[in-house]
UniProtKB/TrEMBL annotation:
Residues 50-143 form the Methyltransferase type domain. Keywords: Methyltransferase, Transferase. This is Methyltransferase domain-containing protein. GO terms for molecular function: methyltransferase activity. GO terms for biological process: methylation. It comes from Solirubrobacter deserti. It holds the Pfam family Methyltransf_11.
Length: 274
């Protein structure tokens, strides 16, 4: 599972890099809230897990100067290479390959705050990863994580998949970990508590995903999801036209007078202390 999953994320890295500016801009409210919750201070060591292109941790990097260190981690080396290109200058950022399905190779009780945006719910055993997170955190230090709420709250991602699934181009979503596995916030709280975290709290953050037009929306999904990208690569011209026509219909409620799209997004943000 990890190998298949890593292969997918390795392949996705290029697409994520292509969409980096849009993602960083649109998801800024989420990063900002996560960073606020770990309360970074000068001299702190902050760990960003499943960091992708690293933007959430990079937001904390300046706040821990002077003397602080940011550790940006992911299990896909290609994500880390892309993140390196986006790292702020003049701050101490270390890049480390960490696979959250294995023990974290960091000393116990050495980290002042952990960030993980849209990572844990993708794991086969998120409780194990949270236990490891707790082990590396200093006592009373915080983890702040993001996990998507349900597909109906996130049509920017769910609508294209549904169109492909209705047409039999994509398989129905397989059981097991995925984007919406933690749509129920009770699951997040329970998993954090079972992993030993104290007083987990969950809140919602609503924000907006913005696309130039329907084509841009489609391209974004094919770039950032290998499943959608692989499906798109197999479409003949006529089928792709039909899919885009359906997407255009789905886009109507979100289409602005200048054709740009503003599609609502919603995530849970959870925090707890070690
Ligand atoms: C949805 S992306 C989120 C990336 C980034 N945190 C963000 O919010 O933009 C999920 C990230 O988790 C990473 N990932 C998936 N499974 C992982 C694992 N077992 N260990 C570490 N990273 C993993 C992927 O490589 C990918 O970069």
């Amino acid at each position: 599972m990890t190998l298949e999953s890593r292969d997918r994320w390795v392949r996705a890295a290029q697409g994520w890099e292509a969409r980096a500016e849009q993602m960083a801009r649109d998801t800024m409210p989420v990063s900002a809230r996560l960073v606020e919750l770990v309360r970074p201070q000068p001299g702190h060591t902050i760990l960003d897990l499943a960091a992708g292109l690293g933007d959430t941790g990079f937001l904390a990097a300046e706040l821990i100067q002077p003397g602080g260190t940011l550790i940006t981690s992911d299990f896909a080396p290609e994500m880390l290479t892309a993140a390196q290109k986006r790292a702020p200058q003049n701050v101490d950022v270390r890049f480390k390959q960490i696979d959250l399905s294995t023990p974290i190779d960091i000393q116990a009780a050495s980290i002042d705050g952990v960030l993980c945006r849209w990572g844990y719910m993708l794991l086969d055993d998120p409780e194990f990863a949270l236990r490891e997170t707790r082990r590396v955190l200093k006592q009373d230090a915080a983890v702040a994580l993001a996990a998507w709420s349900g597909p109906d709250d996130n049509l920017w991602s769910a609508a294209p998949v549904r169109i492909l699934q209705r047409r039999g181009i994509l398989e129905p979503t397989p059981p097991g970990p995925g984007q919406f596995t933690w749509a129920d916030p009770n699951v997040i709280e329970d998993t954090m508590a079972t992993a030993g975290f104290l007083e987990p709290k969950v809140e919602a953050v609503n924000f907006v995903m913005r696309y130039e037009d329907v084509d841009d929306w489609w391209v974004a999904q094919t770039q950032m999801s290998t499943r959608t990208g692989d499906a798109d690569a197999q479409l003949d011209f006529a089928t792709r036209s039909d899919v885009l026509a359906e997407l255009e219909e789905a886009a109507q409620p979100f289409t602005q007078p200048d054709d740009r799209l503003e599609i609502p997004a919603r995530t849970w943000i959870a925090t707890a202390t070690a």
